Amino acid sequence: RQKDENADAQLSLSERAITACLKQRQCKWCLFACERQREDYADYDDCLSDCKNSRGRHNEAALLACNESCKFISQLMQSKYGTCPVYADMHGFSTACVVECGKDIECDGMRKCCDNGCGKICHRPLESSEFPSVPTHMSFKEKSDGGMLVEWESNMRNASQPVIYVFRWWCSSAHSVLYSVTTTAKVKLKGYPSGIPPAAKCSYMVAAITLHGSEGFSPVKTFTKKFLSPSAPVNLESKSKLHDGKVDVTVRWQPPLYTD
What is the pLDDT of residue 246? Predict the structure, then answer.
C-alpha cells in the first residue's frame, strides 16, 4: 500500500485526474465525446447519437455525462479560443475580399473566422503559440510479452499547462477503433489476445490536447507486429514410478507465459 501511495505522489495533478476519471464510468463518458470518429466533430446531434450506443443506452448517468460533453464541445467550437489579428497585420491571401466562412466552426483545426475588412477568411489566432503542435516521430518497440510500446515527440513535454494525448489505433482484421488517453508521450499496448494481433497491419494516430484546444491528429502511421516466438514452458516437473520391473516416468509442464 505504501508503494502505491508513493507512486501516486509522483504523478502530476492532471495524470491523477485522468487516471481516476478513466476508472469512473460517468467521468469516462465525458472523455468519450472528445474521442469520436465523426468528421463533423462539433455537430451536436451527431455527438448525441454517438453517445447512445450499446454501452450507454442502459446507463443513464453515463449518457448524461456524454451529453453534457457534447454540449460543451458544440459551444466551444462555435466560438474557438483566441483573437483574430487586426486588418493591418494581415498579408497575402488573408486580405482577399472573399467570404470563406461565416463562423469559427467552418474553419479547420484551431483557425478562426476573421473579418479582414472586405470579407471573412479562416486565420490562425494571435495565440497560436499556446496550442500544442501535432505530435511527430512516432516509433514502435515490440515487447517480450507480445505487447508494444508506442512513443512520439511533442512540444508539450515541458509545458506548464496540463496536456493529454488521445491515441487511436485500429487493425485490418478488426472492425472497431480503439483508443487510449494518457498524459505522457507514450502508450503501452497489450499483446494478443486482448491487444494487438500478431502479423496484423495496424494504423496509429495521436493528438495533443490542452485547455485551449488541439491542432488535430498526426498523420496515420502503419506498423505490422511480428509473430512472438513462444517463451519456454514453465514449472517443468517429473515423477518416476517402479512398476513390474519397469520405470514409468511422467513429465508435466505448464504452457509458456507469452506466445501469439
Answer: 85
Model pLDDT, residue 9: 46
**Torsion on CA atoms 71, 72, 78, 84, rounded to nearest 10:** 180
Q: Residues for the chain: how many in total? A: 260
Residues 186-195 have pLDDT tens digits of: 998 887 666 7
The phi and psi torsions of 161 (rounded to 5 degrees) equal: -90, 150
Beta bridge partners of 165: 182, 208
Report pLDDT digits (tens) over 63-110: 888 888 888 777 766 778 889 999 888 888 888 889 999 888 788 777
pTM summary value: 0.57
128: Cα separation from own chain's centroid: 22
Q: Provide CB contacts within 8 A for 147, sequence distance 6+.
A: 188, 189, 190, 191, 195, 196
DSSP lists the bridge partners of residue 153 as 136
